[in-house]
Design brief:
The protein contains 18 helices and 27 strands. By secondary structure, the protein is of the alpha+beta class. Helix 15 links the parallel strand 23 and strand 24.
C-alpha cells in the first residue's frame, strides 16, 4: 500500500506560464466530483477529503471505516455511469462561512469543515451535483452528462494533508478522456507501463533490490545492475574530461556550519537528516555536493585567467523522504547525483549555459532520448538575493534556451531558493516525462562564501556559480532506462551480450571454446549448458533480455560457426563467430541505441 501527495502537473506552450485549468483539467476535476458523488451515495458515513485532477486522470480521498476493495470500485464505477445518464446539473453555489460550516457539519463532513475554516473567506464557493455538494473553487463542466469516458484504476492509502500522524484516507485513482477511443489508448498504455515497471524488471533481471533489513529508500546494486551503472559512469567521466571538466571526490559528511553558510539549514532543513555529533561538533550527512565544490575552489586564490573552472563529481547525497513517497529507484533516500559546478565570470555566464545545454542534449541522445519538456523556473516566494540578480540570472537562462531554439514553458515560482533554473524532462517511449537534467544559476552561494577572482584591473570581483546535473540521480535515470527499454538494454549497456547454448552435452566443449574466443574479442558472453531442453534455455535467455543467443550443434561444430538468434528479430541463420564479434564490437563502440535491421543473408548489426 503506497502513500502519495504529489500535486498535479501541467504544461504550456513556449515562453508561457503553465495553465492551472486546461479543458482536460476541468473535465477531470468534474470526474473527481462524479466519483465522490457515487461514493457518498453508496457508502453512508464516508467523509470526503480532496479530489484534484492529475496529469493522467484524477483522484479523490475518502475517510472510511474499511478499505475499498476491487469489488467496491466496480460498484462505484457502475453508480458513476448511472449519474452520467441522469445528466445532473453541476451548479455553482455561494454560502456565507457560517452557512457552509452548518451545511457540511449536518452532513458529517468534518474534513470539509476543517478546510473551510483554514482556506475560505467570508464567502464560500461550492459546487453541487444533485445532492452531492463540495467545497471547491472550480471551474466545472455544466453537467455530469458531459463526462463520456472514464475508468477507476486503483485504490491506495494517503494521509490527510499528506502529514504522517493525520488520519489515513483511502485514495481512489481514476482517469477520464473526452472520447472512449482516447480512454482505450490510455488503458493500453497503462498496461504497457505495468509490463515495463522497473521494480518488477529489476527483480526479474537481477539488477537491484531494496531490503527492509538495510532500510527503505536505500538501493542495493546487484552485479548486473552495478555493471550497467559502471558503463554509464565510465562514459560520463570520459565525456566530462573531453568537455573540460575536472573530476573531484568529496566526503559524505561535513560540519553543520557549512550548511548554515550555504543556507541549506534555513531553506532546506525539512529534507536534511538530523546532525551527527562527533567530539562535541555537529556534522551533517550531505544533502548536496555544492558546498564541497566551493571549498575546493576556495583552497587558493583565482585569477580571471583561471575561469571558467568546471568541477564534476558522481557524489552520493542523502535526503529525507517520507516512506509514503518512496518508489523503487525513482524516489529514494540515498542517491548518486551526476553533479557539476561551473565557476565563471559574469561575462562568461551565457556562453557557459549554452555549453551546458549542448552537453545535456548530447549525453541524453547517446542513451536514446531525443524528446524533452523544458521549463524555465523563476523566483519562489522563499528565496535569497536581490531582484537584479534574479533578473540577470533568469535572462541568461532564457537567452541560452533561445540561442539553441529550444521550446520551453515558464514555471512561475518553482526556482530553487538561490536562483532560477532550467529543468529538462526526458520523454520515454511511452511519452512519459521524467525529471532528470537541471541547470541552475546561483549568485547566492558566491556571496555567502565570498567567492572572488582577481580581475584584469587587479581587484577582487564576485564570480557566478552554475549548478548542473545531466542525468540527475543515477538511481532514477537507471529506473527510466529500464522502463524505456523494458530491460532490453542497448548492446553497449547489456551486462550479457550473448549466451552460447549447446544443443546437447557433447557440444558443450565447443560452446565453451566459442565463448572463450568471443570474450577474447571483448564480448560479454555466458554459456548455458544446463541439463535442460534447448527451447527452455532459449526462452530463459529471452526473458533475461540477452541480445544474442548462439546455438551450437553438430552442423555448427563441423563448420566452426554458430546459429544466431536475436532477442527481437528471431533466427538470423549461421554466422562466423569472428564476424559476429566484429559487428557487435562496432555497435558497442558507436554506442548504437537501436540496432539496424539484418539482411536476409544472416548478417547481424
Amino acid at each position: 500500500m503506497s502513500f502519495s501527495v504529489e500535486p498535479p502537473d501541467s504544461t504550456g506552450p513556449s515562453g508561457e506560464s503553465r495553465p492551472t485549468s486546461s479543458p482536460l483539467d476541468v473535465y477531470r476535476h468534474s470526474s473527481a466530483h462524479l466519483l465522490a458523488a457515487a461514493v457518498t451515495e453508496l457508502y453512508a458515513g464516508v467523509q470526503c477529503g480532496v479530489g484534484p485532477p492529475t496529469e493522467d486522470g484524477f483522484f479523490y480521498d475518502f475517510l472510511t471505516e474499511r478499505p475499498f476493495t476491487l469489488e467496491d470500485l466496480a460498484a462505484i464505477e457502475k453508480r458513476m455511469t448511472e449519474i452520467v445518464k441522469q445528466d445532473r446539473a453541476i451548479e455553482r453555489r455561494v454560502f456565507s462561512k457560517e452557512e457552509a460550516l452548518a451545511l457540511f457539519t449536518a452532513r458529517g463532513q468534518t474534513l470539509k469543515c476543517e478546510l473551510i475554516r483554514e482556506k475560505a473567506g467570508d464567502e464560500v464557493q461550492c459546487y453541487a451535483m444533485g445532492d452531492f455538494v463540495d467545497f471547491c473553487l472550480g471551474p466545472h463542466l455544466p453537467s455530469s452528462g458531459c463526462i463520456k469516458a472514464f475508468k477507476l484504476l486503483s485504490v491506495a492509502a494517503a494521509y490527510w494533508k499528506g502529514i504522517e500522524g493525520n488520519p489515513q484516507l483511502q485514495r481512489i485513482y481514476g482517469t477520464s478522456f473526452f472520447t472512449s477511443e482516447d480512454l482505450e489508448r490510455h488503458l493500453k498504455r497503462l498496461d504497457e507501463a505495468r509490463r515495463r515497471d522497473h521494480r518488477r524488471l529489476g527483480r526479474d533481471l537481477d539488477l537491484f533490490s531494496i531490503s527492509e533489513d538495510t532500510g527503505a529508500g536505500l538501493i542495493l546494486w546487484h552485479p548486473k545492475g552495478a555493471f550497467i551503472r559502471t558503463k554509464i559512469e565510465d562514459y560520463w567521466r570520459d565525456e566530462h574530461l573531453k568537455g573540460g571538466y575536472d573530476l573531484i571526490y568529496t566526503p559524505h559528511i561535513a560540519k553543520l556550519d557549512l550548511w548554515k553558510t550555504s543556507g541549506h539549514t534555513e531553506y532546506y532543513r525539512a529534507n536534511m537528516y538530523s546532525p551527527i555529533e562527533i567530539e562535541n561538533v555537529e556534522y551533517q550527512l550531505k544533502p548536496m555536493n555544492c558546498p564541497f565544490h566551493i571549498m575546493i575552489l576556495r583552497s587558493k586564490p583565482r585569477s580571471y585567467r583561471d575561469l571558467p573552472i568546471r568541477y564534476a563529481e558522481l557524489g552520493t547525497v542523502y535526503r529525507f523522504e517520507r516512506s509514503g513517497v518512496l518508489h523503487g529507484l525513482m524516489r529514494v533516500r540515498g542517491f548518486t547525483q551526476d553533479d557539476a559546478h561551473v565557476f565563471c565570470r559574469p561575462d562568461q555566464l551565457e556562453s557557459e549555459l549554452i555549453r551546458v545545454l549542448d552537453f545535456v542534449t548530447s549525453i541524453l541522445r547517446t542513451f536514446g532520448f531525443e524528446q524533452y519538456e523544458i521549463f524555465l523556473s523563476t523566483r519562489p516566494d522563499k528565496s535569497s538575493g536581490t531582484a537584479e540578480q534574479w533578473e540577470t540570472a533568469t535572462a541568461a537562462l532564457k537567452h541560452a534556451l533561445e540561442a539553441r531554439d529550444l521550446r520551453y514553458a515558464v514555471d512561475p515560482g518553482e526556482g530553487v531558493f538561490y536562483g532560477p533554473k532550467i529543468d529538462i524532462k526526458i520523454k520515454d517511449c511511452l511519452d512519459r516525462a521524467w525529471q532528470c537534467s537541471t541547470i541552475q544559476v546561483d549568485f547566492h552561494n558566491p556571496q555567502r562564501f565570498e567567492l572572488e577572482f582577481i580581475g584584469e584591473d587587479g581587484r577582487a570581483h564576485s564570480l557566478v556559480m552554475v549548478h548542473r546535473a545531466l542525468l540527475g540521480s543515477l538511481e532514477r535515470f537507471f529506473g527510466v532506462l529500464i522502463e524505456h527499454y523494458a530491460g532490453a538494454f542497448p548492446l553497449w549497456l547489456a551486462p550479457v551480450q550473448a549466451v552460447v547454448i549447446p544443443v546437447s552435452i557433447r557440444h558443450a566443449e565447443y560452446a565453451h571454446r566459442v565463448a572463450a574466443d568471443l570474450r577474447e574479442s571483448g564480448l560479454r558472453v555466458d554459456v548455458d549448458d544446463r541439463n535442460e531442453k534447448m527451447g527452455y534455455r532459449i526462452r530463459e535467455a529471452q526473458l533475461q533480455k540477452v541480445p544474442y543467443m548462439l546455438i551450437v550443434g553438430d552442423r555448427e561444430q563441423e563448420a566452426g560457426s554458430v546459429s544466431a538468434r536475436h532477442r527481437r528479430r528471431g533466427d538470423l541463420g549461421p554466422m562466423n563467430p569472428r564476424e559476429l564479434a566484429r559487428r557487435i564490437n562496432h555497435n558497442v563502440s558507436e554506442r548504437v541505441v537501436q540496432e539496424e535491421p539484418t539482411a536476409s543473408t544472416g548478417g547481424v548489426s
